[in-house]
Task: structure prediction
Amino acid sequence: MSEVIRCSWCNGNEAMQEYHDTEWGVPVHDDKKIFEFMILDGAQAGLSWQTVLNKREGYRRLFADFDVAKVAAFSDADCERILLDPAIIRNRLKVYGAVISAREFLAVQDEFGTFDKYIWQFTGGVTIDHQIQADHHVPATSPESDAMSKDLRKRGFKFVGSTICYAFMQAAGMINDHLVTCHRYSYLAGR
Result:
């Protein structure tokens, strides 16, 4: 039986491989899932994705299963309670920032009808295929992530720098950065 070839960043860890094989790079158009990815990618700032992935269930529990309206209604007392729980990354700016971003997320939904309609405009509504040949060719940002970051920051979102936006775009399937040798590349490129 031949070995499954994957992007190298997920090798050696079963949870990372599962995430890579089932979620990473799959186009997301569900606002709830988009909100989850935005909050988790913001939480990753300065940390590894594995750290965030290991705490994902804690985030789901403490952030109302990523119900954006519920998170937007969190009070300071809710944030302080969340900060006491080791099931998440207990960073005050990130927790409070998630609540601020949830409020802005709702405002975007009001303006565009769905957040999906707003966020996919940055790639023209299609997945950008970079046809990555080697790990060192994967960029940290792009003109699209720069534009997304600039607009999100203007709207008041937190933890949405260009690098975070690029990671979000990869996760949400707005960019296909699977290596062309990865077993997921051709599957996602053919969608």
In short: The chain is about 55% helix and 0% strand. Residues 79 and 96 are 6 Å apart (CA to CA). The radius of gyration is 17 Å. The first helix runs from residue 14 to 22.
